[in-house]
Structures are given as structure tokens and as C-alpha cells.
Amino acid sequence: MIRIFSHYVSKMAFVLLLLELLMLLTSASVASVLWFSDQHGQFRADNLYLSSLTFALVIIFSMSALGMYQHSSREGIRTTLIRIMPSFALGFALLSALIAVRPEIYFGRGISSVIFAIGATAVVLTRLVVFKSAESALLEARLIFVGSGPLARECMDLAHSKIGLHQFSVVGCVPIAGEDSCVPTAALLPVGESLLEMARRYEAHELVVTVTNRRSKEFPVGDLLDCALGGVRVIDAATFFEREACQIRLDSLQPSYLIFGGGFDQSFWRASVKRCFDLVASGCITLVSLPVMLLAAAAITLDDGGPLFYQQERVGKDGRVFNVLKFRSMRINAEAPGVPTWAAANDPRITRVGRVLRMLRIDELPQMLNVFKGEMSFVGPRPERAFFVDQLARDIPYYNVRHSIKPGVTGLAQVRYQYGASVDDAVQKLQYDLYYVKNNSLFLDLLILIDTVQVVLLGKGSR
After folding, report:
1. CA torsion sign, 297 to 299 to 289 to 377?
2. Averaged over 400-424, what is the pLDDT?
3. Are 358 and 349 in contact (CB under 8 A)?
4. What is the distance between the alpha carbons of residues 411 and 420, in angstroms, rounded to a whole number?
5. Backbone CA torsion sign across 84, 85, 86, 90
6. pTM above 0.85?
């Protein structure tokens, strides 16, 4: 993994994206040169570079929006072909819309088909080469877990469940005296030699410390220092989860990790960039979705004749309460008894029209007004009701950390976790929210925006 603006990104996925961007640029440029030279006897370079760059970036965005940089490295040519077709179809639609605004980037009727065909072929070939390379044992990261308790078991499960381009080979776990073993016996490594000798013998690239009690006299501080000085990378379980799962796990979190672990950028520069992003993203979405919102308003009125909008108090930055605005998706007086109730994925209080609005996330669109007013950001932790915040803050450590920044219309938890309607779900979502609060940047906001497009198009994620 590499870190780009505080966010962890798979090296192989990053290399794949750069290679495909290069191949798409080359495909558009070379095809244009050959076409114009053949058709007109001389090559004209008018807007070639702008047209080629636009084509490449739009296709890359389309593939990202449909999750083509999050898929398994073990997909074959048939799966690749199936996945690339809708990506290029989406790219064609987006390019057509851009050409209507900027006609000068249009290649021409005949050459456009050729460029799309060559570009798709180049992407397929590039992916097959990269996927085959990713399966090589030479590119596997070999891990040794120091400890064999429940945290070691969770780390092993995460390493084995990776479905991206970054593959792991778990050498095993080093048992520590006094810690209950929760891993299979076959995964335990024999003791008797130093951790440095063991790491070199097994050719381990990294040691992950999963021991929870680090004040015990059995904790191998000296051995871990020897490994670090000997060139073997040593990290703790919290860093492993943050890097590989985009989570800050509560069960492995020490206050010192939040204090000394960096991040939490709330500088004037970051606040200014984020505010500009909020206004641009919300403004564009408002303009594009205006016809959809008008149709939604008409549908709500025809369905039951009730009010169009629903306002509800939510907790924002620094604990300030504000009214979030949504299209009404539940029946009137959904909480008639007066007791706040968790919303569920198949809540019986949802109206017929409301079910469609929620499925397509249309009910969230009025929250752009909250963004314009400065009460919310476009990306951030989802705001929760004060009734539930009081309960969750009592039961879940570090819950109020998410209130150190503005809440968002969409967020990392919304694109990584399914619909949540319980305290346990709130814990899972908090782990993503903490990651975002700690590592938030314009780069991460753009990635979440792309993932949100994927959620809306493919119906994945939560709310």
C-alpha cells in the first residue's frame, strides 16, 4: 500500500490506473493520427491532446464509478469483458454530454468508434497482464503476527479476505506467554529463536503486533526493536486495520494512537478547499438532479397528498443541532408515539414512493441546501439524531470524535457498510468515520464521491 494525501491506496491498483490512463491516451492519439493521415492526406492536431485527455479521464472515471479498481485480481478475461462493457457505455454517455457543451473535443463520427474499440482492447490486455502479475508469489506480502489472541485472529481473517490487488501470505503467529490462543494450532510458529531470526528465515516482509497487553513482561520489546533496526517493518494491529480496511478499530485502539498518529487536519487551507469542494459538488448535483427532484415532488404529492419535505433535528459539528432536510419517504406521523426509532432497510413506515426514493437515494438530494447553508459538508460522517447520539456516546468510546468535523450527505461508512439500524451497526460505521476524520483530504473526498456514484448506479452500500 502507498499513502496519497493520508489515504492508503493499493500499489497495484494505482499502477493499473496509471497504465490504463497511458494506454487510453495512446489509443486515442495514435488512432487519431492514423485516421486523419489516411483520410485527409495530412494530420491536423486541432484539440487532439485535449480530446485524448478528456476521453481517457472520462473512461477512467466510468471504470472507477463501476468498481473496476476494487475487484479481485483473479478475474478472468470473460469477467473482465463483462465488466468493461457497461463502463465504456457510461463513458460514452458522459462524453456525449461533454461534447454537447464543448463540441471542439469531438473526434468525429468514424474515428470515435475506432478509438473506443482500440481503447477497450488496450484496457483488457493491460488488466490481464497486471492480474497475472499480481498472482505471482514474488508480489505477495509475507506477514508474521506477533500474538495469537482474538486480535491476531481478526488480522488473519482480514489478510485472508483481501479481494483487491494487494495479496498477502500469512506465515503464522508467534504465541506470547499469558495470552489465550484464538488461532488454529497449525498457524502457530515454533518459539525458541528471536523474532529477527524468524523473520529472516521465513522471508517475512512485515511483523504485525496484535498483543493487547503491552505492559506485560512477556511483551518482546527488545526483539521488536531488533527487527525494526534490522530492516523488518513492524506495525501494530491498529495501523494494519487502518491501512488495509480503511477502519480505525475500537478494539485495538489506544488513545495515544489518536494523539500521536497524525492526521486530523483542520487547518484553514483544508477548511477552505473542503468548502469549495462542497459548493462545487452540491451545485453540480443540484443542477443535474433538478428534473429528478421535480418528479419526486410530484410523486410524493400524488401518493398521499402529504408534505414534500421532512425536517429532523440532527447533531452536527461540535455537537450543534440543526434541521436536516429530506424528501419525505415515510408516512405522516411515522413516530406518532413520540419515541425515536431506528430506521431499518425494509421499514414498514416507508411509503410506496418513499421506497423508490430511498433505493435511488433521491430522498437525500434536498440536503444540498444544508450544504449551501454550511451546516453540512458533501462528504463526512452522517449526522445522527440527538436522542441516539446521547445513547451511542455513552456506550461507544470515541463516538464524539466524529463530531469534530461537519457531517456529510455521503461518507466513507455509507459506501463501505450496509444499511445500519442498531448500536452494533453504529460501532461498525464509527470505525469508518474515525478513519475519515483522521485522514480526510480532497483526494479522499473525490474517491468517496466516485464510490457514491457506484452506490447509486449499482445499489450497493448504505445510507
Report:
1. positive
2. 85
3. no
4. 14
5. positive
6. no
